């Protein structure tokens, strides 16, 4: 059996995706590898296929229990013996797995990095043949990465204890150029074969919206997509509770996830979502990397994340099976303030030294600036994301809110002069400066106590933009900042400053324009997309029958539905309507084990449909 036979038999694919074959062949010939591939591009296949061909055990280092459990469940459905060791298991279960590993029962064993240098684990690996070590979520080793975990720094010393040292594969979906260099250096990869296939996910539609009422937007969107399962990410636990309760009042089957819940409730709520008992999960980013649910149709960010790495990773949980999905970020000024507060008051990684904590906070604030820039840009959103990770894109993608929007240039010279004059007046009265909120309230003639206490109502510019909405004011301020006329300072209390070019507008009459959407579409309506790779004449009733069969099988096996088969596989099955087990094995994602285990149920449903629709 070779790598192509393994790919077909166990994973149901007749060809490798871009980059996979190169990495698989490199591992099989004893080379270290570094694979950077977008979420859903098949990173795991790059080490799972070699694991089936190499003698001995493949060790997979993974950061989260839920991620390990999901991978093991999927492998077992494919007919591959795999197990994981984690802190949440009973002692007897742990020793059963250890004994199984010693007896050669497993081809893949998943462990957390914290376990690597414990005496018990070192004793285990010293007595068995480890043929490959795969490091998943490898960006966690880098202080430049958004998920730095000091425990990953100890992987290299663990590898030195293996004799002989096996090939090492490092894999991640989110890595800038600096992070890739760190991965290779800190894991001490030996002349690795490095592949970056690109970060693009063409099936994902990206949008940034600034709705006046976020709650109404989210509720309307979910009600408008009744057949879609999705995630709503919120910045704080309190917001999670509020949004989840609101959706439940609207009769939407929603559940919640955050670190403030008891472990048992978090487990139950996660299972309700993964097993399709609840179609919407409202969560903080504690609902993390371990979520491998392939049929997520949308991801809405109720609040802006702290960095683009987190955003792309969280948004990337949509459409993992290749179906079209939507990633919508709801942006407001308050999100920036919340993100900055969370960065400056984060003490969630006790492994960090004081020096490391200071360095990471500085990097986090830099990353926040780029996240804000994404929310404000009028250029292609996909291009902005890809270029952040070092991948150039030319032209429009045609599948984001900016590329699909109709933009116009608006002359805002008069408005710019009023705002810049207001900033100048504040700087003269308060050399230390004031923040955006104080500026906007002064210009709009607010009578709140802070404005009056500061005497802002005595300035000549007080109330000169009283008829301009706060949302419109934000657009003007964003345009002025982007074009270099004002500066928002850094720090705990950011203030607005005039930039050097402001005098050209104030005193020399320089024209200022703003790019904005033409305002035709209703803000809570996004693209209506079709599933990627699904024929337009797909018989929906047959597709639903196959989904019902999958649901029944999943309940009997006590696994999530997508572990049985993905939506994309069901759609291809409904389109091609296989009649034999051999035909079924040619459906992408089925493979030999699933075809023999579940095939008759699906074939029977297809045969019954064909009998009822002889012309279909």
Description:
This protein is an alpha/beta fold. The protein folds into 4 domains: 3-196, 3-Layer(aba) Sandwich (Rossmann fold); 204-405, Rossmann fold (3-Layer(aba) Sandwich); 408-517, Orthogonal Bundle (Arc Repressor Mutant, subunit A), CATH 1.10.10.10; 540-612, DNA polymerase, domain 1, CATH 1.10.150.80. The chain contains 26 helices and 17 strands. The strands form 4 sheets. A 7-stranded parallel sheet has the order 3-4-2-5-6-1-7, sandwiched between helices. It has a 6-stranded parallel sheet with strand order 8-13-12-9-11-10, sandwiched between helices.
In which range does the helix fraction lie?
40-55%
Could you name the CATH homologous superfamily of the largest domain? P-loop containing nucleotide triphosphate hydrolases
Average the pLDDT over all residues and give the rounded result.
88
Please state roughly what percent of the residues sit in beta strands, choosing from under 5%, 5-15%, 15-25%, 25-35%, 35-45% or over 45%: 5-15%
* Euclidean distance between termini CA atoms: 39 Å
The biggest sheet amounts to: 7 strands, parallel
The rough form would be described as: globular
Task: Provide the number of structural domains.
Answer: 4
User: How much is the radius of gyration in Å?
Assistant: 27 Å
Low-confidence stretches: 520-536
Return the CATH class of the largest domain: Alpha Beta
The helix tally amounts to 26
The side-by-side strand order for the widest beta sheet comes to 3-4-2-5-6-1-7
Class per helix and strand makeup: alpha/beta
CATH architecture of the largest domain: 3-Layer(aba) Sandwich
* CATH level-3 fold name of the largest domain: Rossmann fold
Let me know the number of strands: 17
